[in-house]
């Protein structure tokens, strides 16, 4: 039954002469460039910004940088993992509320109740689920771990059932809506629509003192840089490559022996942790956390910044988030009421004509990050030309 | 290359139904270790569905054993880890990753998380070897999306090699290929079948005649005929299915391609 077949010359399957495998990327030079980039970013955030910006503007920048942290996470989950998370406000809110609860309790003193609870007068004593947040040893880890745990639970259910694409986006958005409804409904213990306001102290430091506000800004800037370093490691790791593979061919990855659900889950949980941390730092920077800051609209605004900046790149989400938030403030100051329309227009224009975001303009010139390219390839004539150039092995 | 033992595939009475329509209706076949088995049959014969059942993509009853392992009832990624690899009719390489990254991912299903969160340093030996085998060493750093059609198919086969698949299920690997590419693909199949078992779904009869070691003809979800190329070609039932009437083997040459 089995025919005898002579062994073929193995050269027959080599259309091209065998040669040395070119290295993926020059590691040394790339590392140098990264270090230079981080040094530049640190100089900008730690030296230039505090020098040229007024206290008021610096506080605004601190707020934008918190949004940028959420954006970095969305860049991982959406840009790299293909999960359009329209509900990052949930995780941002969990982190923010955890931090705000602790700061309110700290301000009320041992055994005390937050001011708003006394105001509504419905409660005789602190609700049970508030109590652990009195301890910073619980509250601080909770700002990150709580969002991660929720993302883990949700992601485990959703990804194993192979919910993706628009269904995932809608589900994540519904979660944001549900959280807002829950917070508003439980006014007696959550502050309702007002949220947790009037946060004056941060671990013993008076937040009305400009010096302390500046310290909060530095903490935020440092945290953002750390998250960027972590993200860079993640997207250049094997896991980062695998995540892109899952984004582009989930079924194919399954046939290679991976469980795509776990791969996506990790990215989703990491993004949630970053959003939680951002929410936690947002509270001392702005002094308030409320349902209006974490609902559907802010959740979508997080995503718009990422889309504008370039979702699949490292810096795109950060720059996009800061730029959009800054533009919003600047334009709202001058033309109140027009921002919403401009924001919508911006989103449509970017998605339709520059799906890779502004970062892809940069990539047109540099072409470094392989996975950042395809989002716009074929859409622009420039993109096509560059795709052709890729035929030549990279030097 | 794989160094592991050679196993055969044993399919017993496999049935697949979709909403009352029976796509595979009690197929049994034995593919001995190291065989290059071609699955042929008219459209709708159940070839791809059978491969889907073997790889866990669709639910099936009966039994599919590879070596000592029962495959039916396991999820796709677990079956894959038992050494079963497949390609699809349309190329499914990760176009936005480089050739090297594609292979590295294919090789990595057993990696620990600790390895995953680190960067790849250099080119692992088995990947370098696979790059040579599939003739894409020169293109390792290029995006897979920039490869020619035939090269993408070779990359797919290369991914199965580094995945350490011991059973390769290839769905129309030479569709759309030039003559040179077909020859190269055939030689590649013979090379990899030295320490692997290969099952090929193919419509190209010229390719089949040159590279099949054995052939199974499916028709209407059942096995119609089985044997060597010559035996199958001489089978009047096969000629009838393909041509509507019995003919001699000489004129079946073109007729079978329909």
From TrEMBL, chain A:
Q: What is its main location?
A: membrane
Which UniProt keywords are present, listed alphabetically?
A: Cell membrane, Membrane, Transmembrane, Transmembrane helix
Q: Which domain of life is it from?
A: Bacteria
Q: Does the keyword Nucleotide-binding apply?
A: no
User: Where is composition skewed (Low complexity) in this entry?
Assistant: 12-25
Give TM regions.
35-53, 59-78, 90-109, 137-159, 166-185, 215-235, 265-290, 302-327, 339-365
Q: By its UniProt entry, which NCBIfam families does this protein fall under? A: urea_trans_UrtC
What is the protein name stated in its UniProt record? Urea ABC transporter membrane protein
Organism expressing this protein natively? Micromonospora saelicesensis
From TrEMBL, chain B:
Record keywords, A-Z: ATP-binding, Nucleotide-binding, Transport
Q: Which InterPro entries match?
A: AAA+_ATPase, ABC_AA/LPS_Transport, ABC_transporter-like_ATP-bd, ABC_transptr_urea_ATP-bd_UrtD, BCA_ABC_TP_C, P-loop_NTPase
Cellular component annotations (GO), alphabetically ordered: plasma membrane
Against CDD domains, the record matches this protein to: ABC_Mj1267_LivG_branched
Q: Which residues form the ABC transporter domain?
A: 9-245
Named from the GO MF annotations, one term is: ATP binding
Annotated protein name in UniProt = Urea ABC transporter ATP-binding protein
């Amino acid at each position: 039954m089995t025919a005898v077949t002579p062994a073929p010359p193995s050269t027959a399957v080599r259309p091209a002469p065998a040669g040395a495998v070119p290295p993926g990327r020059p590691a040394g030079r790339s590392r140098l460039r990264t270090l230079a980039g981080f040094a530049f970013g640190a100089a900008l955030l730690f030296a230039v910004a505090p020098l040229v910006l007024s206290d008021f503007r610096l506080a605004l920048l601190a707020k934008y940088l918190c949004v940028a942290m959420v954006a970095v996470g969305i860049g991982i989950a959406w840009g790299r993992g293909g999960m359009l998370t329209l509900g990052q406000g949930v995780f941002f809110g969990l982190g923010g509320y955890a931090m705000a609860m602790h700061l309110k309790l700290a301000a009320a003193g041992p055994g005390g109740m937050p001011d708003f609870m006394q105001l509504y007068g419905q409660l005789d004593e602190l609700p049970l689920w508030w109590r652990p947040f009195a301890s910073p040893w619980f509250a601080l880890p909770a700002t990150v771990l709580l969002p991660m745990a929720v993302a883990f639970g949700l992601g485990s259910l959703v990804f194993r059932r192979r919910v993706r694409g628009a269904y995932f986006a809608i589900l994540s958005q519904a979660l944001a809506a549900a959280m807002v409804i829950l917070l508003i409904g439980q006014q007696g213990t959550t502050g309702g629509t007002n949220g947790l306001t009037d946060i004056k102290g941060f671990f013993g430091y008076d937040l009305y003192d400009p010096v302390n506000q500046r310290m909060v800004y530095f903490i935020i800037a440092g945290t953002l840089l750390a998250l960027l370093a972590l993200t860079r490691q993640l997207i250049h790791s094997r896991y980062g490559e695998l995540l892109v593979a899952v984004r582009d061919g989930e079924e194919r990855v399954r046939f290679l022996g991976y469980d795509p659900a776990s791969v996506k889950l990790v990215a989703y949980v990491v993004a949630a942790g970053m959003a939680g941390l951002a929410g936690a730092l947002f509270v001392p920077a702005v002094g308030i956390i409320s349902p209006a800051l974490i609902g559907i609209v802010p959740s979508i605004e997080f995503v718009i910044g990422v889309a504008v900046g370039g979702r699949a790149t490292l810096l795109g989400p950060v720059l996009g988030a800061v730029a959009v938030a800054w533009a919003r403030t600047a334009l709202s100051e001058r033309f109140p009421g027009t921002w919403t329309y401009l924001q919508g227009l911006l989103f449509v224009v970017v998605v339709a004509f520059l799906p890779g975001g502004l970062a892809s303009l940069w990539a047109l010139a540099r072409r470094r990050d392989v996975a950042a390219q395809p989002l716009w390839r074929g859409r622009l004539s420039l993109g096509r030309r560059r795709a052709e150039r890729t035929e030549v092995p990279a030097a | 290359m794989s160094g592991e033992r050679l196993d055969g595939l044993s399919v017993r009475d496999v049935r697949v139904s979709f909403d009352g329509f029976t796509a595979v209706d009690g197929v049994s076949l034995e593919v001995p270790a190291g065989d290059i088995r071609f699955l042929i049959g008219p459209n709708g014969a159940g070839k791809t569905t059978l491969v889907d059942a073997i790889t866990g993509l669709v639910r099936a009853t009966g039994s599919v054993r590879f070596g000592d392992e029962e495959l039916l009832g396991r999820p796709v990624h677990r079956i894959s880890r038992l050494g079963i690899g497949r390609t699809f009719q349309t190329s499914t390489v990760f176009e936005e990753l480089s050739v090297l990254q594609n292979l590295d991912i294919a090789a990595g299903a057993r990696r620990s998380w600790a390895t995953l969160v680190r960067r790849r340093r250099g080119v692992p030996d088995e990947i370098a070897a696979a790059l040579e085998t599939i003739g894409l060493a020169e293109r390792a750093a290029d995006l897979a999306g920039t490869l020619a059609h035939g090269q993408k198919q070779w990359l797919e086969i290369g991914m199965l090699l580094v995945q350490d698949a011991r059973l390769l299920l290839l769905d129309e690997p030479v569709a759309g290929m030039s003559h040179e590419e077909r020859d190269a693909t055939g030689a590649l199949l013979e090379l990899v079948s030295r320490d692997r078992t290969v099952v090929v779904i193919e419509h190209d009869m010229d390719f089949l005649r040159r590279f099949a070691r054995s052939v199974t003809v499916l028709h209407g979800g059942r096995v119609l005929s089985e044997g060597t190329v010559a035996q199958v070609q001489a089978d009047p039932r096969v000629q009838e299915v393909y041509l509507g009437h019995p003919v001699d083997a000489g004129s079946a040459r073109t007729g079978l391609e329909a």
